[in-house]
Amino acid sequence: MEAEGTLDGDQIEATQGQIAPVPRVSIQAFCEMPDTADTITASMNDRRMLKAHVKIHMGGAAAAIEAYRSAPTPNVIVIECNQPRHVLLTHLDELADYCDAGTRVVVIGRSNDISLYRELMGRGVSEYIVSPFEVLSFVRIISDLYASVGATPVGRLLAVTGVKGGVGASSIAHNVAWAISREFDSSTVLVDMDLGFGTAGLDFNQDPPQGIAEIVFAPERLDANFVDRLLSKCTENLSLLAAPATLERNYDLQEHAFDGLIDILRSTIPNIVLDVPHIWTAWSRRILVSADEILVVASPDLASLRNTKSLLDTLRAARPNDTPPKLVMNFVGVPKRPEISVADFAKAIDLEPLSSIAFDPKLFGTAANNGQMIAEIDSSHNVTAAIEEIARILTGRAEMKLTKKRFSNPLSALLARKRS
Questions:
Q1: Is 144 exposed, middle or buried (0-12, 13-18, 19+ CB in 10 A)?
Q2: Is residue 7 pLDDT above 60, yes or no?
Q3: Which CATH number is correct for 156-419, 2.60.300.12, 3.40.50.300, 1.10.10.10, 3.20.20.60?
Q4: CATH ID of 21-145, from 3.40.50.2300, 2.60.40.10, 1.10.760.10, 2.30.130.10
Q5: Rounded CA gap, 370 and 262, in Å?
Q6: pTM of the full predicted structure?
Q7: 337: Cβ–Cβ under 8 A, 6 or more apart, which residues?
Q8: Is the bond leading into 132 cis (omega within 30 degrees of zero)?
Q9: Quick check: 47 and 74 in contact, CB under 8 A?
Q10: Are 19 and 45 in contact (CB under 8 A)?
């Protein structure tokens, strides 16, 4: 058996999107080496393992056998055994006497031996991991245990949020969702999560009678058919799960309020764009941390700079095995407004923006008032090109390269001359 590959920094972005979230299962690991225990501990903080309940013990296979003599086994048992083959097989045969039906066993060892692998599979072991291994390798193996053969690929979860109110994050989210559905001829759902003040219905000229509120306040009805009935069709490939945008009731939601909805959308829709409002609650943090890609929208001012740094630091710490969030600078070049240069902004937060979108009130205002997307107003505008490039990057269909000509601010040269 080939050893599990170690993922380097260049491979993380390509690999992480292929790993499905691990379902709500119990996992107990019995390690021999501290390094193995440390790696599994680190995996518990990965966003794809949020629902799994993991416990780590030392002592290896012998400790596992002793633990389950009088206790039921969990969904997954992970056993590390660096002892000779005959000792490992003897332990597994003894453990089999105590395993409940449906329990899956993953073995960790140091022998990279195809004959051992075949013998373990013949005994019903679900997977064999050659140590040392990386966090994402372990997460991927646990995820694959529950990935159905021939199942539809898990949808890609793209979360868009603004670092403060009024930076145009919702407009970017809506246009990116529209671009994904059109550019790649791929089924896409836009979820407006601003229940009280969401604008997705207005931007798409839709007024659906039902939407995301029905899911939040009637979770007992939640299933794929129920969600499908609540989706409003915007185009052939784009559907909208609209917010009620009313203040008739309070929206004090629990941390797990959207978990069921996200699971259903992931299993049925290739692209899910979440328009996450500028709030900081348990549920909004959970949504951002669990997303496959995060797009942060900011404007070039001091409050945005402070909030962007704070948000990026928090998300980087919570997502240690993921690439950093992506950044879009919006409302760049507002006449007569002092602003922080994009270069200085990027240097302060240690992140280059994907795009710097110039202030263009006529273009965005016309689109908003007409219930249209930017590309429908002017398909040749450089903002349209920027939105399309952002869509390609977020869906993994383009390398993350800055195209200065495409993303340049047409007012920058004029402003520079005025300042000089």
A1: middle
A2: no
A3: 3.40.50.300
A4: 3.40.50.2300
A5: 30
A6: 0.79
A7: none
A8: yes
A9: no
A10: no
